[in-house]
Amino acid sequence: MKPEQDINNLRHSAAHLLAHAVSELYPDTKLTIGPSTPEGFFYDFLPTTNFKEQDLPAIAERMQEIAERKLPLTHEQVPKAHARELYKDNPFKLELIDQIEGDTVGIARQGEFHDLCRGGHVEHTGLLKNFKLLNVSGSYWRGNRDGQPLQRISGTAFFTPKELRMYEKRRQEALKYDHRKLGKEQDLFSFHEEGPGFPFFHPRGKIVYDQLVGYLQSLLRAADYQEIATPMMLSDELWKRSGHYDHYRDNMYFSEIDDRSFAIKPMNCPGAILVYKERPRSYRELPLKLAEFGLAHRYELSGVLHGLFRARAFTIDDGHVFCTPDQLEEQIKQMVAITYTVLKKFGFEDITVGISTKPEDAMGDDALWDKATDALKHGLESAGVSFEIYEGEGAFYGPKIEFRIKDSMGREWQCGTIQVDFFQPQNFDLTYVTPEGTRARPVMVHRAIYGSIERFMAILLEHYKGRLPFFIAPVQIKILTITDEQKPYAQELLATFKERGYRVAMDESSDPISGKIKAAQLQQVPWMLVLGAKELENKTITLRHRDGKQEFGLTLDDLLKKAEIAQK
Amino acid sequence: MKPEQDINNLRHSAAHLLAHAVSELYPDTKLTIGPSTPEGFFYDFLPTTNFKEQDLPAIAERMQEIAERKLPLTHEQVPKAHARELYKDNPFKLELIDQIEGDTVGIARQGEFHDLCRGGHVEHTGLLKNFKLLNVSGSYWRGNRDGQPLQRISGTAFFTPKELRMYEKRRQEALKYDHRKLGKEQDLFSFHEEGPGFPFFHPRGKIVYDQLVGYLQSLLRAADYQEIATPMMLSDELWKRSGHYDHYRDNMYFSEIDDRSFAIKPMNCPGAILVYKERPRSYRELPLKLAEFGLAHRYELSGVLHGLFRARAFTIDDGHVFCTPDQLEEQIKQMVAITYTVLKKFGFEDITVGISTKPEDAMGDDALWDKATDALKHGLESAGVSFEIYEGEGAFYGPKIEFRIKDSMGREWQCGTIQVDFFQPQNFDLTYVTPEGTRARPVMVHRAIYGSIERFMAILLEHYKGRLPFFIAPVQIKILTITDEQKPYAQELLATFKERGYRVAMDESSDPISGKIKAAQLQQVPWMLVLGAKELENKTITLRHRDGKQEFGLTLDDLLKKAEIAQK
Q1: Tens digit of pLDDT for each residue in B236-247?
Q2: Which of A144, A371, B84, B510 is most deeply packed, by most CB within 10 A?
Q3: Is the model's pLDDT at B3 over the cut of 60?
């Protein structure tokens, strides 16, 4: 048995423990399902009155009691008729029984408690002491938002008290540096009831957003990308042709114009395809690299919305490269290189890369798949990147590379992706004219580096614990004077840094210097230039970093040189 | 009688002439209405089979014949009952008769032809010879898109053959420099059936768009504007509160999320208001100048869509300034100054400015209106701008300034606007904390300079006859070599200009120099650097402008200095 199965068994058993406690405390509550998750476990209930956060301590206490009873966990197969009788008052369980194949179903038991269950548990409830209940949220029966609304209690569990303590410490840290909290403290963005899940960028947040876009644009320009902008709304017929309507409709928003239905774009590819098709293309134009910072709208259940991590609108740093099969390898290599440049720029050193290969229901012939998969492999190899192979896990339309980064709190995030696409060029009959004057089919590659600008901004905020690097900080430099006497000197410095394009501000308040420092600290301004009588006299500057470190006696020239380096 | 009334009578009579000819040629066609317009006239028909462009010459010929008959035009009032009998087969005319007040209606006659008509004509059809039919388009009865679809024939008419010739010359020129034609020739943007009225920006067009935004951003930054970005979709409740839902609903698109209706924003103000309200504001923050380059979506009838002039989505260069009443004048002054800077930058010297004052149904007290209107006047005066007063033509929520520019073909465009708004601050209960610690109501000013980036781009394309100025041209410099021998020299120049941030390209084709020049000319590249044997030998450059003018023997230094000036 592998370790990850063990922890899954532990957590699934902890879900039973939770259901057991709830059944004892609230006997009229209907049980539905309670799986383990990568982070812990949950159980979805239909209670007679909704659970609140303040109910959790009592439930946890009862769980602890049951754990102390050290009840053995057993599991047996029983005839379906028997199970139907057992759960005759629970329509959810009856539905599940109907859907299980075969004549018997599994029942797990611990003391008086029993639950419909496929199995996989620890030996007795005494092993389940190291758990923590985390929160109550709304959910739906089988995740279907037209289905019965339910109440979900989530928690986590570990084998040892030490593991649980470490988890709680990490969680405290994550809460402290929650990007939603930092976003408010640093006045970066907000969410409003008038547009749930749609971020409002405040001036300071818009600067960070623009810096992220601008930095990538400079790399893309150097790599001969050309930027396009395609409409927010496109007709249903287009989304039907692209396949999004069939596969993705439930996550799309629609509107009507002149009795015709249009979707608000959830992806940018169809727009790029129409631009490609707008006129005949020659082999001379390939590889054609189209970039689009495209605002996509996607439906998410209100219960799973999570600041900028999971919003209903976000900007994809999309790239669509149209090339010949022979150009594929070089293109992949370039994309991998840019991805690494960007991720390392933001201090992500621990990057996991995987290639997902041909699945069973793939389109396109084996030779093309082999060529494309080799192109992905060689592209990574020539960039000196080691990778895993996820056999058969590619999309039906082509193989892909996925990049996962580990942040400073040890959490993994999937950001970049490079996807080869044989399907859309055929589906939209994309062609180019070869040197021989014949028509040939280009390959299309979809790629994103940030993934979503908004989400990447949130990852950065948490990764840097609120201290965004100098080159993307909303205000890079704040000038603080100890008395009004230094104001003219401060004005001089302000003008000098402004002229050179730095985002620099001056604290004009009459607060004492300690107050000024505190205010700049809260906004995580990277550089504070502190000016007092001594600095004025010697025409020097004290540079105070946001971590409290200070450098004394710097000249303007010193500072300008430092700033130039920090800006790069 | 004023001259513009004369021309209106002439054109309205020409519409009758058109209807007369159509009645003779297609007797079963139902007539509806035929007014004069600022540009000419039209008549809306319900024909038995749709008119085509190729029907126009025959109709025009018959009009010319009727004109030569020199039929006197008469006009009489007849009892409604009589008119109802006369038009018993025409439901449109019957509807009109019902809606006219009083017991009689006017009937105009010329020969056998008669039409329901308020009057205002020339003496006889012989005066109507100088007309031209322009096109056939779709329309709706009373412009209501749920109403009966009709066919509109449009034309124009003048008093003298010379005036008509001049008009046709201007029209030819306008057709030649139609931005839709230029947009295609220069590969700037396109429209697609999959998104009617929604522009697709190609890489070259996206550069122009970005340059327009970037130029304005640099002015706004200097004027202490802060940029925000608010969502594309906001709830109906918000639009109901803002008043847009009641007044503007027919031009808005809607979508549903979780059974709640959201509008796709037709304007950016409610978003800015929510950002203002996000936290308490102090007098210290005022004037708070929020800029947003916000993509707005507005419904337009498909028949009136006209490239980037009239599209269904466009980016407003919105500014929302929140200030105290006392700060208003200074703010207006700054806005006028920026507007003039921008318009003059693009060569618009003929600018008409008007102030629209308090209408009858205004909100807010007279003192506040006087103060605001004075602020507008003084703002213009202190910028040395003369203006007209449009008495009583302001919006109910406040007075406004409108800027109209005349382009190189003599056509007028309304672009910028500055609108004082007393209503929304009260409606959304916006406040700020005064120095005394009390709460006070800010004034809100809406302002746009370009109006719509997309429309302004179209105006510029036509105004410059396709020759966009150096600083916003998609490709600013193109390097053309006469033989391959000059390629290394060309590469050097390419690298030098690229490094300095210019948009520079090299013609890599094996075409002869004449072909290379022609290609660069078609794309209206401002500067062609022509390199031959002589240039290589002397390390000089021949600069060819797109108008054919050439400057020989320039050094790289000369060129860099020239470029720096052109870039400003």
Answers
A1: 999 999 989 988
A2: A371
A3: no
Q: Is the pTM value of this prediction over 0.80?
A: yes
What letter would DSSP give residue A29?
Answer: P
Q: State the pLDDT confidence band at B506, using cuts at 50, 70 and 90.
A: very high
B447 phi, psi to nearest 5 deg: -150, 145
pLDDT at position B371: 86
Rounded mean pLDDT of chain A? 93
Check B229 against A235: CB less than 8 A apart.
Answer: no
CB contacts of B228 in chain A (<8 Å) are: 200-203, 206
CB contacts of B226 in chain A (<8 Å) are 203, 206
pLDDT tens, B150-190? 999 999 999 999 999 989 988 888 889 999 999 999 999 99
CB < 8 Å to A226, chain B: 203, 206
Query: Residue B5 — pLDDT band, cuts 50, 70, 90?
Result: low
Q: Choose among B207, B258, B299: nearest Cβ to A257.
A: B299
Out of A194, A207, A227, the one facing B203 most closely (by C-beta) is A227
Which residue bears the tokens 């008409």?
Answer: B352
pLDDT by residue (tens digit) across A415-426?
999 999 988 999
CA–CA separation, B539 vs A444, rounded Å?
43
Interchain CB contact of A232 with B (< 8 Å): yes
Beta carbons of B29 and B137 less than 8 angstroms apart: no
Ordered structural domains, chain A, with CATH: 4-176 (3.30.980.10), 180-463 (3.30.930.10), 477-567 (3.40.50.800)
CB contact under 8 A, A232 and B190: no
Q: Do A190 and B275 touch (CB under 8 A)?
A: yes
Which residues on chain A are in Cβ contact (under 8 Å) with B193? 235
Contacts by A256-263, CB closer than 8 A, 24 or more apart: A256/B253, A256/B254, A257/A233, A257/B196, A257/B253, A257/B299, A257/B312, A258/B145, A258/B302, A260/A235, A260/A236, A261/A235, A261/A236, A262/A233, A262/A234, A262/A235, A262/A236, A262/B195, A263/A233, A263/A234, A263/A235, A263/A236, A263/A239
Note the pLDDT tens digit of each residue in A206-222: 999 999 999 999 999 99
Q: How confident is the model at residue A4 (pLDDT cuts 50, 70, 90)?
A: very low
Task: Give the Cα separation of A108 and A113 in Å (integer).
Answer: 8
Backbone angles phi, psi at A74, to 5 degrees: -120, 160
Q: Residue B363: is its pLDDT beyond 80? A: no
Among B187, B190, B194, most A C-beta atoms within 10 A, so best to mutate, is B194
Distance CA A155, CA A175 (A): 16
Question: Are the C-beta atoms of residues B48 and B7 closer than 8 Å to each other?
Answer: no
Q: How far is B195 from chain A (nearest CA, A)?
A: 5
Candidate from B196, B226, B235 with C-beta closest to A194: B235
